[in-house]
Design goal:
By secondary structure, the chain is α+β, with helices and mostly antiparallel strands. It is built from 17 helices and 20 strands. The chain has two domains: 232 residues, Dipeptide-binding Protein, Domain 1 (Dipeptide-binding Protein, domain 1, Alpha-Beta Complex); 222 residues, Dipeptide-binding Protein, Domain 3 (Dipeptide-binding Protein, domain 3), CATH 3.10.105. GO terms for molecular function: peptide transmembrane transporter activity.
Length: 542
Amino acid sequence: MNDMHKWLAAVGVAGSALLLAACSNSGSSSSKNESITLSTDGEISTMDLSKTTAVETFNLLNNSEEGLYRLGKHSKTEKAIAKKLVKSKDGKTYTITLRHGVKWSNGDPVTAQDFVYSWRRTVNPKTKSQYGYLFSGVKNADEIQDSKKSPSTLGIQAKGKYKLKITLESQIPYFKLLLGFPVFFPQDKKVVQKYGSNYGTRSNRLVYDGPFKLVNWNGTSTAWKLVKNNKYWDKKHVKLNTIHYQVVKDPQTGLNQYDSKKLIATSITGNQAKNLKNNKALTNLPTSSSYYLSLNQKMKLFKNLKIREAISMAVNRNTLTNKVLGDGSFDNGSFVSKGLAVNPKTGKDFTSDTSTPASMKYNPTEAKKLWKEGLKETGISNPHITLLAGNASDTGQVTQYLQNTLEKHLPGLTITDKNIPAQTVLAEQSQHNFQMTLSDWYADFSDPITFLNILTTDNPSNQPQWSNKQYDKLIKASSTTDANKPEARWNDMVKAQNILLKDQGITPLFQSGAPWMISSSFKGYIYNSAGANWNLKEAYTK
């Protein structure tokens, strides 16, 4: 998923552990009016689960909505609305019995039909969901998204009010993990149709079936809150009454508010982390992420491989991560994040099995040579490129470094940094309305395909519009012919990333760290799952 804010998606599977003291699953809050305040550095763009791509929204959805499963420590799936699952011997049919008595915050019952409606809405081309591709492998999903079949033919059926039948075209090894991701959550058809295009644009224009309800968000708010949902089926285990959110774009302001106990937790910059290295409240939360440059390959300049290689070789990733950021970010030599998944046979990390090409190593001399050759081949001289990125403080540091190093090592190149609000950046990226942009992806589940999928030719999240037939073929094989062959599937994905990196389909820069100040009074679970979130259902204060 995209992340323009490094908000509460701070913990990924990349080496993070259970951070805070685990609380009892059966205990109650120490106070009936428990309330905490957290910071975020960006506004909410939308709460429509069919349309969002932002980490910020997915964290709110994970705490205000609920699907068939929840994802726990080490990405373990835990039953939520699902009460019983029966999988066919060939792994292609899932029959799921739903929990009775689950309600939306407006009192409507949550039924099997709500899942059917939600899934059909997301894959419907008219919805323009950027996450519809995750349904690939569910019967007819691809044909529906290609406008070749009706959404009503999707492989999900309601067998009465409380039973679902899901039909896959082939076994999907990570399918249960997908069921714990918000894109697969239910939606109340009555509410969606009531608000139409305005659905999810304000907190009172949707309903909630999770532990909390979002309130006081009007679409542009800089403050909002989650309040306990008294219609939630498991409300007795929800320990907090209210979680206040405050948009704090200046890290120093956030730190000051934390020091004055106005915030119970806040993210900080690398420079702040260096100054607070002996503070017990400082915690680095590794993320399952990849930050990279997308070069618009519909442009003549960036169609040239030597140009792409030159740009990559002009970047000193160690300088970028250690001196510019200094927040625990690191160069993993990969697009897929380190710590996400291991070889089913050897136990080696995915990044250890793949190859890092010479073009991802800092080599200014070779970069200059390739740059000059590439310019000659394209017939372009003295190119002027705009670098699009968000306007958060750490993002600005990255783009300033990139501007300086690229102009220094690539003769005749002029870079203009365009740092604008994150919501606008996401919109521009989705329309490929850029020349060069700082992109990012956070894992949605603990499998390399969560990264590799997005760079297939027709994927809506393929921002650089890179295309490679062999890459597409390998990714398809990993989910079809090799889906039930763990080693073959793994090799498909390894080969695919090797092709991607050698061809510089993107320019990987770093895997993000995230230093936070977290009060010792705040206890609860932080999940070790891809695209992770704070599980505020279990959180509480002393």
